[in-house]
Amino acid sequence: MIYIALLVLLIGIELVYFKIADKFNIIDKPNSRSSHTSITLRGGGIIFPIALITAYFLGYASLEITLAVVLVGIVSFVDDIKPLSQLPRFASHVVAVGLVFHDLGLFAESLWLLPIVFVLLIGWVNAFNFMDGINGITVLYALTAIMSFSFLSINNSSLPLLITMGLSCFVFGLFNIRKKAKTFAGDVGSISMALFLGYFMIKTIMETGQLGYILFFSVYGIDAIITIVIRLKKKENIFQPHRSHLYQYMANEMGYSHVLVSSIYAGIQLLINGLVVYMEIKGNLSYLIMIESLVVLTVIYILIRRFVFRKIIQHSF
């Protein structure tokens, strides 16, 4: 019953936010780099940090992770309304990562490990944020990760928290996984969710000693890294909005449904996650297997990207 009540509460909060966003004109106007064509309410992803606050008061989440997610959520929400400079955004990320480290006891680990985890977590948060862009992709990918973490026995004690965040994804998805979305996540949604997922990735790896779980983020990770490399080669500003990700080409240039493309990304990641769990159960998830898997997935991604580009070129003539 508690989860049904949570679901109703989160739906109510989201609907109230829509009224506020509409009144104060918190909207996303399409431009040349957008994958949408109509004005849409921005910041619907505010439901993610709100869900975490609710989880904290129910005793499901620690104070540190709650403060971390709320901090980046507030700064990102302000940035959604009125763009901020890099300094306050980066500062909030640094403080949030520090809170995550404290929560997970990372400050007691070897000093050489801290900068590595710091860079990886900051990189993941920004990559996840950059990957947002078409209806359904952020929330379906987040839901896939949450489901995968929930399946692991090591996270049994965290199930109430994971279920609560999963419910927030479901609520947001009701208004975003559509041909014409009613709302977009905004930075408040994508960055807060990215930090939450990054926290669980580090937590899971630390408690299991299994680095192979990094494959849970492989689809987004590979797309983000390859796209950044390509944009750097073109001497583009990688911090500016763009339409260079594979999923954007599929949705925009090839004309596939946003929801279909988002579902493909989430479905492929879910399949990979299932194989990862299976290999771990069988005791076959070694560092070598992890590296080989990343190489194979990267090659497959590059081949698919080249295929899509050939199709786009053919259609342009």
TrEMBL record:
Spans through the membrane: 46-78, 112-130, 137-154, 160-177, 184-202, 214-233, 254-279, 285-304
Membrane topology: Multi-pass membrane protein
Broad class of where this protein is predominantly found: membrane
Gene Ontology cellular component annotations, sorted alphabetically: plasma membrane
A Pfam family this chain is assigned to: Glycos_transf_4
Signal peptide: none
Keyword match Magnesium: yes
Alphabetical list of InterPro entries matching this protein: Glycosyl_transferase_4 (IPR000715)
GO molecular function: metal ion binding; phosphotransferase activity, for other substituted phosphate groups
Domain of life of the organism encoding this protein: Bacteria
Cofactor: Mg(2+)
Subcellular location: Cell membrane
Protein name listed in UniProt: UndPP-QuiNAc-P-transferase
Native organism: Flavobacterium frigoris (strain PS1)
